[in-house]
Every structure is written in structure tokens, then in C-alpha cells.
Design goal:
Layout lengths: L2 H7 L4 E10 L2 E11 L4 E5 L6 H9 L6 E6 L2 E2 L10 E4 L11 H11 L4 H14 L15 H13 L5 E5 L7 H18 L2 E6 L2 H7 L2 E6 L2 E6 L1 H6 L4 H6 L4 E7 L4 E4 L2 E4 L2 H4 L7 E5 L16 E11 L3 E7 L6 E7 H6 L7 E5 L6 E4 L5
Parallel strand pairs: 3-8, 3-9, 6-7, 7-8
Antiparallel strand pairs: 1-2, 1-4, 4-5, 9-10, 11-12, 11-14, 12-13, 14-19, 15-16, 15-18, 16-17
Helix pairs in contact: 3-4, 3-5, 4-5
Bound molecules: adenosine-5'-triphosphate (ATP) and magnesium ion.
């Protein structure tokens, strides 16, 4: 049985059902339903204002939904205040108590459950070890770097061994290098502890590298739920295609039930895409890295001639602008530096390229990106 099928058979650890959240007359979340399985790492991904934080806060009980229900571990927690729910949370801003030491910050929740001093000290030491900050316990937050403060916040969130770990953009205030480093550390820690985790981010790279599944949101609704690979390879809408990764959006039209016309070139579609061919004009989508140049001849499927208009050096690869017809009929293609050298790809050169049918997606031309 595949993991997906197995997941469908067992009950989700966190179930969100038909959640709507209104702020006055403004609807921030519209009829959201979602399952998160035990031990999963799920990311809410979407542009600013799409409702990610609002949904996380509804799950935490920090902001109760207007309609709908939330279940955790089979229990209906829809109306419970945050203090009676079982989660740990980390926010974007470190939110540590500045007047308490690292030890006191991490042990804060433990004091409330009347553990003995020795027990608390042992647990705090264990947690600091876990987040890679042993022997920093006597420092104050202001004596730590941003990355170290977020590790303390993570240790504090994990202190009560919560059933659910909620993270709201925990890495976005950090500089790029620390962010990438902590991304791996947090993912590794989550995997080791097996704690069910929901993380909010607007950073697609973060979501793609950390999540088991990504929930792409837009304007208070879910656009798509899937593994990083599904979201990247088979975007369900033009919006998802645009938001995750880089995508060419090309004006095309329906030629027949199996093919589209891109400029004067007939391109074959895969079966799944053919089903979407009901109207015309359409947007044909292909990722720059999926455009092929090696071993292409007249018999290659979806091959056509292009002229190199421009070449942009981007470090490890080049992005070429290729013209396949009239002025403005341009497509971006990413080529390795070696390929550019071997094939003498320079502005003005004519090259034959191909778009494999399984890399070609179509959407109605009037869909919002
Ligand atoms: N307390 C509030 N009162 C009124 N409107 C709110 C409130 N909280 C959020 N909103 C609105 O709800 C929408 C969703 O906000 P939310 O904070 O969930 O977005 P987000 O996806 O987390 O964005 P960001 O990436 O900028 O953090 C926004 O339009 C926001 O202005
Ligand atoms: Mg937010």
C-alpha cells in the first residue's frame, strides 16, 4: 500500500473542517478543510495576506474561527481556548522574555506544571542540547544572535512535548545563510522527534525543502495540497504554477482535441492536459529547465526552431531568451554553462528545442496568475 493510500485509511491527527474566518465584513478564510497526519511536516505557502497566519491561529485557538471545526487527535477542539490546547508555537519575531535567561525561557512552561527544580533543569539541558545550544543557558536573549534566539524559541515550544508544533515564519527574520542552515536543522529535529508540524512561510524554497506536503493558499482559500514534487511538477492552477518556481506562460490556442498551436508550431499534450482543452485561447506553461536541446531532430516530439535573443549569466547556469515566432513570442530556457559552450549558444544563433509533452501544462487564458 502506498503512503498516500495508507494515509487516506487512517484518521488524520489534525482535521480542519469548513473553517471560515471573518474580520468584520472581510473574509480572511473561506471554507478551509485540511487533514494533517501524525508526524507530518506541512507548510502553508502563499503570498502576504492570503490567510496563512489566520489559519495557524485558528488551529492554535489564538483566534477562534467564525464557522467550522478543528479536531486534534480525534478531539473536537473548535471552541477551546489556546491555553487548553496541546501545541507549541514559534513566531517570526523571537518573542523570548528579555528579562529571563535562556534556561528560564525554555523552562517557563515547565514551572507551571510544578515539576521539581532538578527535573526542570534536566529537561531544559536536554532541550538546549537538542537545538544545538548546550551551555548557553545562563545568557540573556540580547546576548544571542537571531538564529540562536530562534533555537531557544524552538526549545521552549518543544518543552511540554506538544502534540502539535506550530511555526509562523520562524526563519524569515534571519539572514540568508543562517536561514538555510537552520532550515536543515529544524527539519532534521522534526523528523527525529516525529512531532506533527505546521509551518507558515511565504518562501517557496523553504516549503519545497522542508515540507512533506505543501498547502498553497490564495485569498483565503486553498489552491492546492500536495507533496513538493506534485506542486512543482503538476501545478493545479496558473497561480500555483506562477508562485512556485519559475514558469513560462505562453499564449497559445487549441488546434484540435490533442494539440495546441504555439506560434506556428503544433505541440502534443499528455492525456491529463488534453482533458483541460475546452476553451481557447489558452496559456501553455513550461519550466525553463524543461526545455530540451540535446539530441533533437525533426522526428522529436514537440520540436521547433528558435532564435537566441538574449543570454543572461546566472552563475551556475544561463537563462536564454528564445524567440519562436513573431516579435514578443519569447520563451525562457535554462541551459548549463557547458551546454552553452558546447553548442555555441550565443545571441543570434538558431537552435532547435523541444518541450517534452509531460513538461507542458495548460490553463485557460483568463485565469488569474
Ligand atoms: N485582526 C485582524 N483584523 C482585521 N483583519 C485582519 C486581522 N488579522 C488578519 N487580517 C486580515 O486577514 C488577511 C489575512 O491575514 P494573515 O495575517 O492571515 O495573512 P498571511 O498570509 O499570514 O500574510 P503574511 O505573509 O503577510 O504574514 C489579511 O488581509 C489581513 O489584513
Ligand atoms: Mg502571516
Amino acid at each position: 500500500m502506498s503512503k498516500d493510500v495508507a494515509d487516506q485509511k487512517r484518521e488524520a491527527y489534525l482535521r480542519v473542517r469548513n473553517v471560515t474566518k471573518k474580520f468584520g465584513s472581510f473574509t480572511a478564510l473561506r471554507d478551509i478543510s485540511l487533514d494533517v497526519y501524525e508526524g507530518e511536516f506541512v507548510c502553508f505557502l502563499g503570498p502576504s495576506g492570503c490567510g496563512k497566519t489566520t489559519l495557524l491561529r485558528a488551529i492554535a485557538g489564538l483566534d477562534i474561527q467564525t464557522h467550522g471545526s478543528v479536531f486534534q487527535g480525534g478531539r473536537d477542539i473548535s471552541g477551546l481556548p489556546a491555553s487548553e490546547r496541546d501545541f507549541g508555537i514559534v513566531f517570526q519575531s523571537y518573542a523570548l522574555f528579555p528579562n529571563l535567561t535562556v534556561n528560564e525561557n525554555v523552562g517557563y512552561g515547565l514551572v507551571n506544571i510544578r515539576s521539581s527544580k532538578a527535573e526542570i533543569a534536566a529537561k531544559v539541558a536536554e532541550l538546549l542540547e537538542l537545538v544545538g545550544l548546550p551551555e548557553q543557558g545562563d545568557k540573556y536573549p540580547s546576548q544571542l544572535s537571531g538564529g540562536q534566539q530562534q533555537r531557544v524559541a524552538l526549545a521552549r515550544a518543544l518543552a511540554m512535548s506538544p502534540g502539535l508544533l506550530l511555526l509562523d515564519e520562524p526563519l524569515s527574520a534571519l539572514d540568508a545563510k543562517v536561514r538555510v542552515h537552520l532550515r536543515h536543522e529544524m527539519k532534521e529535529l522534526q523528523r527525529r522527534l516525529g512531532v506533527t508540524t505546521v509551518m507558515v512561510t511565504h518562501d517557496q524554497e523553504e516549503a519545497l525543502t522542508m515540507a512533506d506536503r505543501i498547502v498553497v493558499m490564495k485569498d483565503g482559500v486553498i489552491e492546492q495540497v500536495g507533496t513538493p514534487e506534485e506542486i512543482y511538477r503538476n501545478p493545479a492552477s496558473a497561480f500555483v504554477a506562477e508562485f512556485v518556481g519559475t514558469m513560462n506562460f505562453l499564449n497559445a490556442s487549441k488546434a484540435n482535441d490533442e494539440q495546441i498551436l504555439l506560434g506556428e508550431n503544433l505541440l502534443n499534450l499528455d492525456e491529463a492536459e488534453r482533458q483541460k482543452l475546452n476553451g481557447s485561447p489558452i496559456l501553455a506553461c513550461v519550466r525553463p529547465e524543461d526545455i530540451q536541446v540535446r539530441n533533437i531532430d525533426d522526428a522529436t516530439e514537440n520540436a521547433f526552431m528558435t532564435t537566441v535573443k538574449d543570454l543572461e549569466f546566472l552563475g551556475s547556469f544561463c537563462r536564454a531568451t528564445l524567440c519562436y515566432g513573431d516579435e514578443g513570442s519569447n520563451i525562457n530556457a535554462d541551459f548549463s554553462i557547458n551546454l552553452v559552450r558546447d553548442r555555441n549558444i550565443i545571441p543570434g544563433a538558431k537552435i532547435r528545442v523541444a518541450i517534452p509533452a509531460n513538461s507542458l501544462h495548460i490553463f485557460p487564458a483568463d485565469t488569474a496568475k
